[in-house]
Specification:
The complex is a heterotrimer of chains A (about 230), B (about 130) and C (about 575). Chain A is about 60% helix and about 20% strand. Chain A is an alpha+beta fold and about 230 residues long. In chain A, helix 3 packs parallel to helix 4, helix 4 packs across helix 5 and helix 4 packs antiparallel against helix 6. Chain A is elongated. Chain A starts with a helix and ends in a 7-residue tail after the last strand. In chain A, about 40% of the residues are buried. Chain B is built from five helices and five strands; from the N terminus they run E-H-E-H-E-H-E-H-E-H. In chain B, helix 4 links the parallel strand 4 and strand 5. The longest helix of chain B has 18 residues. Chain B is globular and about 30 Å long. Chain C contains 14 helices and 17 strands. In chain C, strand 9 and strand 10 form a beta hairpin. Classes of the chains: A alpha+beta (about 230), B alpha/beta (about 130), C alpha+beta (about 575). At the A-C interface, helix 1, helix 2, helix 3 and helix 4 of A face helix 8, helix 9 and helix 11 of C.
């Protein structure tokens, strides 16, 4: 990335990191209050509270929602913190599932479901984590514009060989219009800048007509390829 | 507020159900719908006096639902719920004929006072 | 062809600018190429023209100088020949009109001589020689009667020819003379005699003087052996040897270039006499002859040099301008390209952050409702134990939700900075919001963050998100500049009827003048570290886009003052 984009990204990163950090703090506070109320309720005689059942359910629900918020803040915070390190080690499956989690809302607005394939194998990557995350996110972004509503987009991280890993983006249904949009997307400047970005990581990116629609190939150790 | 019947439309199930329960505790008959289609169906089957509608929904968007409600049931006032920073959607909604808009998370007292205002206005107008 | 190759190279360089990162060396090379090429295509024709002109002028001028010289030489030669022919015919007349007896009689000869002297200038003596070479009679100043000439060259010459004109020689009185001898053969008796006259060559000098030459020029006669026959101004006296090459025999007058014995470059016009062994030479120094030419030449040279200087100057300037413009437009394009790319990338990062902010909002709404429900349950239950205690806990949760909402709101504000979105806003409010973002850091680093906001600041029409970014960028700079425990101040004020100002003061490390000069340059960074130089160029760009301006004052070690001026109404809007 050019220095200016780097700075912009660093700027956004700083803001986002700050915001998510604060959010996590606030959520932690809520969690504490919930715990406190639960403790007090537990000590009371259940019969003296007419709606104790409802109270407990509400508290549980708040706990769940807090966790949802914490996860989101956590993942976004990780994304935001990435600009600090130009080279870092990360697990590709985890990264993919985090980005999928973060992108779910964007997908939901287009009525596309996003899922990350569950993998037991760990794929450790040494690369620029921000660029890698941006790449994966932007691939999702490209496909969100291409696929029709109701489709499911599936991301899968794969170890191709000891030196390379890949993220494959596939879908369960591609209409003729979607195919045309795919073709158009591969000619768009956005796509060439993605290719360029992949190139700076020593990787490559391919847009196809059949599954996988996008295959993003990354070297396992980019430090020695960059 | 006795005898008041409203429809709450939001895709976040836990949000609508809880808010509905709280409104019912205040004597407001509250129905819920999880998306736009369901909301339109429910409105034509059993018209409420007021609709509280979330703008951001998958599928039929809140603004689209608003448009249809305004054309098919112009006497039912609509209050919009927007996400955070949703000023633009709110203003767009007002332009389309929503009575008011509120940002989530909201204070229930706020919602109820706007509902009152909306009903007063629609009665006065009718 | 090298020029062709060079040209192609230049065009290639012009055309493929997009392929490579433009480097200063590339522009230098381009500048050199264009300069050299333009110099070649202008100077070469100029040189050629100058050369051709030079030669044309030279030959034209030369012919203009040469032909009068030739004419002069011819004219003078005719005068000489006329003079010689006149004397010769006189002597011939004497030889043929009188009988041998008459001529042998000295008294008669003396009388003839006197008449000759009266009628024709230059006759020194007159003698008659018989066929054996013996002087039979003599009229003149010397005692030459009885002298035997039979062994002399001219007498031998007269055996085959009947006329003889001698070279110049010095007579007894040390005057230059020539001798004219005519042989007469009496047809009736077959007897022959020779009439010999000596003639003073003073007349030659008159003839030469009548040429009217300028003082630098010289004219004289020589014989084919290179002996001067008349006095020369520069090359010696009569009968001295001419210090130079005798020009080759020619029956026409000629002009040759020579370097004379004195080392002068001269033009020599010469002609051989038909009847006698004389060569008439006119010598003119070239410098004199070609003075006009030299003046012209130096004028030509000056014009040429001035043209070259002007051309070189214009080309250098033009090339510099051209390449600078090219560089500038490349830079602009590059910037625009980056701007485009980064705005795209930013919007995707921004969209992600915005998406997440919205996504976080949903659980917050749910928590809010759940807490609200609990609050309702507690409030609606008549004898809820520890009612107040529970209510305060639940209220705390609702407040925490409110705080979280503020955070996501702020994050959204920054994430969604796309197009300029003008709204009427309270600048103080924007300043407070932005400052709020850094309150934590201020607290943590013990930095005093002081707000001095004008109480009745008019609301302005501007873009909230963009302003937030501007203020945050500047504040980030200030925070990076101050040490822990430092001071950062923000003040708002009304500058004039159209403008409001926001001042940011810190007592941090400050910036050097050198740094100040460059802070808005997009790729400028101080070596201090990554944190310090967060996009002041972006900040500057945004402020300009909003129709405002930024002013910076800074002193190393004392601190920095940023002043942001914003129009109350955006300019573009009012034009529309």
């Amino acid at each position: 990335m050019a220095p200016m984009e780097m700075r912009e990204t660093a700027f956004m990163g700083r803001i986002t990191a700050n915001a998510t950090h604060e959010m996590k703090n606030v959520l932690a506070i809520i969690k504490e209050y919930v715990g406190l109320i639960q403790d007090i309720l537990a000590r009371l005689d259940k019969d003296s509270i007419p709606s104790s059942e409802k109270m407990f359910r509400s508290l549980e629900s708040i706990r769940d929602q807090v966790q949802r918020g914490v996860d989101l803040s956590e993942y976004l915070n990780r994304f935001a913190h990435s600009p600090d390190e130009t080279i870092g080690t990360f697990e590709l499956n985890l990264t993919v599932s985090q980005i999928v989690y973060l992108s779910r809302r964007l997908a939901k607005l287009k009525e596309i479901s996003l899922e990350a394939a569950q993998q037991n194998q760990t794929i450790t990557i040494v690369s620029d984590p921000l660029k890698a995350q941006m790449l994966i996110f932007q691939c999702i972004d490209v496909l969100l514009d291409v696929l029709e509503s109701g489709a499911t987009m599936r991301l899968e991280a794969l170890q191709l060989d000891p030196g390379t890993a890949a993220v494959e983006f596939s879908t369960d249904k591609v209409s003729a219009e979607a195919r045309q949009r795919l073709k158009d997307a591969s000619g768009a400047p956005q796509w060439s800048s993605l290719k360029e970005l992949a190139g700076t990581l020593g990787g490559s990116i391919l847009l196809g007509q059949e599954d996988p629609l996008i295959r993003l190939v990354l070297p396992v150790d980019a430090e020695h390829k960059m | 507020m006795e005898g008041l019947k409203v429809l709450l439309v939001d895709d976040e199930e836990e949000f609508v159900s809880t808010l509905a329960e709280r409104l019912r505790m205040r004597g407001i008959e509250t129905g819920t719908a999880g998306d736009g289609e369901q909301a339109l169906k429910s409105i034509s089957e059993d018209p409420p006096q007021l609709v509280v509608l979330d703008v951001m929904m998958p599928g039929l968007s809140g603004l689209e639902v608003l448009r249809r409600v305004r054309s098919e049931h112009p006497h039912i006032p609509v209050i919009l719920l927007t996400g955070i920073g949703g000023t633009r959607e709110g203003i767009e909604g007002m332009r389309l004929g929503a009575f008011d808009y509120l940002m989530k998370p909201l204070a229930i007292e706020d919602l109820i006072s706007r509902m009152r205002a909306a009903l007063a206005a629609s009665r006065g107008g009718a | 062809m090298d020029a062709k190759k060079g040209l192609r190279g230049i065009f290639r360089r012009f055309l493929d600018v997009s392929d490579e990162e433009p480097s200063p060396a590339r522009y230098r090379a381009l500048r050199t190429d264009i300069t050299v090429l333009m110099l070649l295509i202008t100077i070469i024709p100029l040189c050629l023209m100058a050369l051709i002109n030079y030669h044309q002028y030279q030959s034209a001028l030369k012919s203009e100088i040469v032909s009068p010289m030739k004419a002069l030489v011819n004219k003078t030669k005719h005068s000489f020949e006329l003079f010689l022919a006149g004397r010769l015919s006189t002597v011939r007349f004497v030889a043929s009109a009188y009988s041998y007896e008459d001529l042998a009689d000295e008294n008669k000869l003396n009388r003839i001589f006197r008449v000759l002297k009266q009628e024709f200038r230059g006759f020194v003596d007159l003698g008659v020689i018989d066929s054996n070479g013996l002087q039979v009679s003599y009229a003149g100043p010397y005692e030459l009667k009885g002298k035997d000439y039979s062994e002399q060259d001219w007498f031998q010459h007269l055996k085959v020819s009947d006329v003889y004109i001698s070279d110049v020689f010095l007579g007894y009185r040390r005057f230059p003379h020539i001798v004219i001898a005519v042989k007469h053969i009496e047809p009736s008796s077959g007897r022959s005699w020779i009439v010999r006259a000596t003639i003073d060559t003073g007349r030659f000098d008159d003839l030469i003087a009548s040429m009217g030459l300028d003082p630098q020029s010289d004219a004289f006669l020589i014989n084919p052996q290179g002996v001067l026959q008349t006095n020369s101004k520069f090359y010696g006296k009569v009968l001295d040897s001419f210090p130079g090459v005798v020009p080759p025999l020619s029956h026409e007058s000629n002009v040759i270039d020579e370097t004379d014995a004195k080392g002068r470059d001269v033009l020599i016009a010469y002609t051989y006499f038909a009847q006698s062994n004389f060569v008439l030479m006119v010598v003119k120094p070239k410098a004199e002859v070609l003075r006009a030419w030299y003046t012209l030449k130096s004028e030509l040279l000056i014009v040429f040099l001035i043209s070259v200087v002007v051309i070189v100057g214009v080309i250098l300037r033009l090339t510099r301008m051209l390449v600078d413009r090219l560089e500038e437009s490349d830079r602009k394009r590059e910037l625009a390209l980056r701007e485009m790319q980064h705005s795209h990338k930013l919007s995707s990062i921004g969209r992600l952050a915005a998406g997440v902010a919205h996504e976080v909002n949903n659980p917050m709404a749910v928590i809010n409702e759940k807490a609200g429900l609990m609050k309702d349950l507690i409030e609606f239950t008549q004898n809820f134990p520890d009612k107040e205690k529970f209510l305060s806990q639940v209220e705390a949760i609702i407040q925490a939700v409110e705080r979280c909402r503020a955070i996501t709101h702020r994050l959204l504000g920054f994430a969604k900075r796309m197009d300029v979105e003008i709204e009427i806003l309270d600048l103080n409010q924007v300043v407070k919001e932005t400052a709020g973002f850094l309150e934590k850091e201020a607290l943590y680093r013990n930095i005093r963050l002081e707000l001095d906001l004008a109480a009745h600041l008019p609301r302005i029409a501007s873009d909230r998100g963009q302003l937030q970014q501007v203020f945050l960028n500047i504040l980030n700079n200030s925070f990076a500049a101050v040490d822990d425990g430092g001071r950062v101040g923000i003040a708002t004020w009304e500058k004039d009827i159209d403008t409001v100002g926001v001042t940011f003061i810190d007592n941090g490390c400050g910036m050097s003048e050198e740094t100040l000069k460059h802070i808005y340059e997009p790729f400028y960074t101080t070596k201090k570290g990554a944190g310090s130089g967060l996009g002041l160029s972006i900040t500057y760009g945004i402020v300009k886009k909003l129709g405002g301006d930024i002013e910076v004052q800074s002193k190393v070690g004392q601190g920095t003052r940023f002043m942001v001026y914003l129009p109350k109404k955006p300019r573009e809007r009012s034009e529309k």
